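Hi U.,

Before I forget, here's the chain from the pilot set. I'm dumping it here mostly so it's searchable later in email.
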Amino acid sequence: MIKDVLTGNEERMKKAIDALKKEFASLRAGRATPALLDKVSVDYYGTPTPVTQVAKVSVPEARMIVIAPYEKQLIKEIEKAIQKSDLGLSPNSDGTVIRLNIPQLTQERRKEIVKTVGKKAEDAKVAVRNIRRDGNDAIKKLEKSKEATEDEVKKGQEDMQKLADKFIKEIDAAKAAKEKEIMEV
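Structure:
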């Protein structure tokens, strides 16, 4: 019973880490990556659709993203969507493809992004702690319903804490790696 609670909460914690890593991938670090466009959507026949689903996105150079729409008439829509996004990039189109030049980040902008990374990492830690609390509550309920002994509950709560500590270390490592990537010149 306690093992089921631990396994279920470990899965939830893994999902929190995966979500954090996805958030980090969409943050601009001065290097071109297709993940920058993950949150940019275009109006595709009345439906908001991610750019990555209506165009081939490639990175031919470290500071350039090339977007080749599957349908030519989408070029204007994609350009508008990029300009409306918070990426701060100016699309250049030649009628068949859109090129995005990724400028060097200023030191001030890097510091802003690092703050955002810290906030997202803290949100992920809070999510892990909430999952731990839910798990501990579920374990206590097992004791109340006589499905687990006091010793099993104590061991289960220790294991839950170890699990939370492991994932918080992973969050800290991901945060440090992203901050290092952002601050590289």
